[in-house]
Request: fold
Amino acid sequence: VQLQASGGGSVQAGGSLRLSCAASGGTFRSYSVAWFRQAPGQEREFVVTIRGSGTTTYADSVKGRFTISRDNVKNTVYLQMNSLEAEDTAKYYCAASRSVILSAQRLPRSYDTWGQGTLVTVSS
Reply:
């Protein structure tokens, strides 16, 4: 499976963006898919994950503002980002894995397939 992230852009604080993570080369309905982000000079940070069962886990910093969903027909996972803040500025990466241990699902090393990233810039 290969992943392609898209949908990034520049938006003012309070605005919205929807990111997409499209899979090719196989179906990933049973995969866990996560979004991470990395701001310049900072470590990659967990944002949210959705398991094959549909169970979701959000970072506290985005809870209530971001929503992850998946369309298994289109082989795509979406990240709807509302009420964006300047602190959300980062490059966003989607990642996937067939098997992710629940206790480690917030860790980048749990995912073996990564997209190329899409840049989100929020101006205040």
